[in-house]
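FIELD: query
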Amino acid sequence: MRSLAAFTRKEFLESVRTGKLMVLLLVFVLFGIMNPAIAKLTPWLMETMAENMEETGLIVSATEVNAMSSWMQFYKNVPMALLVFAVLTGGILTGEYERGTLIHMVTKGLERWKVLTAKTAALLVFWSGGYWGMYGITWGYTAYFWDSSEVIHEFFGAFGVYLLGIWMISLILLGSCAFRSGAAPLGTAGGGFVLSYLLGMVPAVREYVPTQLLSGSSLLSGAAAPEEFAAAMLVTSLLALFNFGVALLCFNRKALV
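FIELD: result
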């Protein structure tokens, strides 16, 4: 297991050296601050707009914001955070193909499953740290500015989105292992997301698709119950495990040169 630990450590050191880890952290911190900040600034923006629009005869009504407004902003920003994460980490394996570094490590005795496990561990740590950091910042500022007693199931809804991110990671790795193109990971993840979104428009399967988890904002006000998302969580988890397994099979048979 020493080789696995060494390769995993190499992944983290490389992400620090290239600045990718710092960029990821800054992006998630920024989104975490933006969620309550946008909600807090909305009344001021609406008041400014009202003053400017009076001359044209348009009336902009006053807007009241609360903890729910901050959490709704959280769900609006999550897709963008997922996109940025995918763009920054999509080349974690295809970059190795282009540099030709994998062939040297594999010929020296490093098992392929250890390579893929290290890459997977790095992506999971990056996503977990960034996402829950964003959640924690949003939760802290929201609790500071407003009374959050009326907001319910915020953690359960956020956990569903976290599972969606893991499913996206599995698609990135699947695309990286099945194809050599640098655009393949993003294409696979994007294609899977779009397909899930389109299937979500079909009432018969809506409650089972991964992108249904982005609707977790309905949990906050009690408009939906946690059990309504249980099927989507289960399917998302099973799909992620399936994708990881297929990715490993593809990687074991893949020509590295």
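FIELD: remark
The radius of gyration is 21 Å.
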